[in-house]
Write a structure and sequence with these properties.
This protein has about 270 residues and is mainly β. It is about 15% helix and about 40% strand. It contains 2 helices and 13 strands, in the order αβββββββββββββα. Strands 2, 3, 5, 7, 8, 11, 12 and 13 form an 8-stranded mixed sheet that branches. Strands 1, 4, 6, 9 and 10 form a 5-stranded antiparallel sheet that branches. Strand 2 and strand 3 form a beta hairpin. The longest helix has 19 residues.
């Protein structure tokens, strides 16, 4: 192989590796100015301790390859709160606000529902009626390819948390979006993909912790006139948790210990 051919082959390999390393997940939930780390079983997460904060939600479009994103619909914030606790949550902002979901509302011209079942437990002390869920039965389960209930990253588990749902509208392809990756100590890669970022003002009382995930219905094109839909959820490395404030040194120590343990398990340290 000629030197020039080897150079181009190496450049192509590096380009593929860089593209994979900076790939932006379809959905992300990031607490602005949060600290990335691990606390207990909540691994590779953005943590915040202020009861009032900005939450940045990302919906990213896949514009390359065989599956090109056409739309991100029924995008929903999932709040995991400690099992049996009650409190209040205020979420405002974005382009259409955040609407609490508590009953099955059919979406016109579609065959799926969000939520899939009616709320079955009172979690909000300032809301009358059943407003939350004891289990993750709120995702359509008729098609396992569209079922994200199998995602059991902590604390998104029935035996750990109860759940609140908020509709935050569709996400369009409006321009560059960032990659808020809490893995490996945390990093924010600017303009890593395309889609839409929405900023919400959040206020929490009563709950000792609130974990934020985001899921939605990803409609993609796989050929001329061929559309497929799939439910998707933020990965464990691109979610956030609010914790009741503790002394800063203790929180930082917990995050640091978690990171050191993880790095040692990966044999980086």
């Amino acid at each position: 192989m000629k030197m020039q051919d080897a150079y181009f082959a190496l450049a192509a390999i590096l380009a593929i590796l860089c593209q994979s390393a900076t790939a932006v997940p379809t959905f992300q939930a990031y607490i602005d100015n949060g600290a990335a780390g691990t606390i207990g079983q909540d691994e590779d997460t953005w943590f915040g301790t202020s009861s009032t904060f900005d939450l940045i939600v990302v919906g990213a479009y896949n514009l390359n390859g065989d599956k090109e994103t056409i739309s991100l619909e029924q995008v929903t914030l999932v709040l995991s709160v400690p099992e049996g606790q009650t409190g209040t949550v205020s979420i405002t902002g974005g382009d259409v606000g955040a609407t609490l979901l508590y009953d099955r509302t059919p979406v016109p011209l579609t065959a799926y529902y969000n939520p899939h079942s009616d709320a079955d437990v009172d979690l909000l002390t300032d809301v009358t009626g059943y407003d939350g869920y004891l289990t993750k039965s709120f995702i359509p389960e008729d098609d396992k390819d569209k079922d994200v209930t199998g995602n059991n990253h902590y604390p998104f588990k029935d035996d750990v948390s109860d759940f609140l749902l908020y509709d935050i509208g569709e996400f369009d392809n409006l321009g560059p979006v960032n990659n808020y990756d809490a893995g490996n100590g945390g990093s924010i890669a600017l303009n890593s993909g395309y889609g839409e970022e929405k900023t919400f003002s959040v206020s929490v009382t009563g709950f000792t912790s609130v974990h934020f995930d985001v899921y939605g219905y990803d409609v993609s094109s796989i050929g001329t006139g061929v559309m497929i839909g799939k439910w998707d959820i933020s990965p464990g490395s691109h979610d956030s948790t609010y914790l009741v404030p503790v002394p800063g040194a203790i929180l930082l120590a917990c995050i640091g210990v978690g990171l050191v343990g993880k790095l040692r398990r990966r044999r980086i340290l």
